[in-house]
């Protein structure tokens, strides 16, 4: 138990961060109109693609002869990038359609 | 110096995520918000590539592979995202989400390899974070792929025997394995057992869920991936990952709850698959003694042309038939004849909340013509004709007056108040909820059977003639 507290103590800054970010996330998107649920979900989806940064770090640290780590890391970079790029592009395509109507006909 | 730059860049990236998400939740600023978040993401990736340093030195390598991965991911991702049809958007979102989950799980696997070399005594917080990232990432990955397959129509809803019991057992075993590793000690065999069980759990978790409940599950898995990304951030003390992940985790959870509210369903209900897959008792057919009235295309054309107020209720049937464009054409023709045409959009029309708005917007339907449920429900009494195209459950009066119905309590479009109701449908098949719609048997309801697109085309041609 002691060691658990020690771990939390050592990472207190991160714990604060975590708690505040959770509250912020809730605050930021409360009261979204239903019409935006799909684009919002898709946009949020792209944002969690930030996990690709972790994949890059893993690759930067892996030693060049550790083929297993390199292979897995390579895959991680690809799928992470897919998440980021695909997410933002798809969201943009959806939102683009909302835009261009007001004064048309 | 370099490291401070790195930290500042991550701070900026975090800010763009927050601002982007905030802007995404308002119609006017949404597109800009998405671009801002994307710019922040680009910044985070670029600074990681250029400024990141190891603790001991800067013996960082493997740039070739990293760039290769980034290029491959970018090319495939862009191609998929550009090519996908608007109707297939939900499964695309789900697929990309699964990729994010996979990325988080893969990171945990590599980190575990490194971790094995170090000998930690006492409580191993790092291992816990790794295990959680592995667990949540894997569940999100396999669950999202199943969701993708279902929405593509490649996987059928299936309730396995003792599904709930099996799921509970799986979850419990995973928890026990994690606790075991933290208390007694870790070995690769148990670590990979967690991976396998988590993947299986993700599959079984999504398997029984179907129909209108799918978007809720996708949203939930989305927030899972957010959490998995955040665990990755914790592992590296990377604040951009932490903010991005947690924001999506908590925002996704709220979004999930909002969606549930829009359908008047509880999250537990959705997860236990109370409708979608499991409501066999409600699938009884009461059509034996009742008759439906059909209407011809030319009669419909006349009726519409000489009306003053027409409301179109689009449903998923319209979307799959790709009939939104022809529908817009009909709307313009009628407007030229002096008919006021509006669209009534149920919050969960389409396959995701807001999906129908996207589809209609694609066909250039003016924004002000799309009316939300609360607005339009008051207007139905003054409406001459309501045309329901490929929607079913969202106009089912049973939601209001049949307490035994599985959709009882769900807010619906009260189209039965209009003077005439025309329902375009392929046949008498029930909707997602698998229940008969008594509206079809009302005296003022007429059925217009056939494929939505073909029927609309013929109808438009007829209206032109008049």
Care to describe what's here?
The complex is a heterodimer of chains A (105) and B (466). With 105 residues, chain A is mainly α. Chain A has helices spanning 2-10, 12-29, 37-47, 51-61, 67-99. Chain B is of the alpha/beta class and 466 residues long. In chain B, helix 16 links the parallel strand 4 (385-389) and strand 5. The longest helix of chain B is centred in the first third of the chain and has 29 residues, at 89-117. Chains A and B meet through helix 1, helix 2, helix 3, helix 4 and helix 5 of A and helix 1, helix 2, helix 3, helix 4 and helix 8 of B.
Defining key terms:
heterodimer; A: 105 residues; mainly alpha; B: 466 residues; alpha/beta; 6-stranded parallel sheet; 17 helices; 58% helix; 7% strand; elongated
Estimate the strand proportion of chain B: 5-15%
The whole-number mean of residue pLDDT values of chain A reads: 85
Instruction: Give a quick account of the main beta sheet of chain B: strands, pairing sense, barrel closure.
Output: 6 strands, parallel
- Uncertain parts of chain B: 274-288
Annotation, overall tally of beta strands of chain A: 0
Mean pLDDT of chain B equals 85
Query: Major sheet of chain A, described briefly?
Result: none
In short:
The complex is a heterodimer of chains A (105) and B (466). By secondary structure, chain A is an all-alpha fold.
Write the layout of secondary structure elements.
The complex is a heterodimer of chains A (105) and B (466).
Chain A (H helix, E strand, L loop, with lengths): L1 H9 L1 H18 L7 H11 L3 H11 L5 H33 L6
Helix pairs in contact in A: 3-5, 4-5
Chain B lengths: L1 H23 L5 H22 L11 H21 L5 H29 L7 H27 L11 H21 L4 H19 L7 H23 L2 H24 L4 H5 L25 H9 L3 E6 L1 H5 L3 H13 L3 E6 L9 H8 L7 E3 H5 L7 E5 L8 H4 L18 E6 L19 E5 L2 H14 L1
Helix pairs in contact in B: 1-2, 1-9, 4-5, 4-8, 5-7, 5-8, 6-7, 8-9, 11-17, 13-17
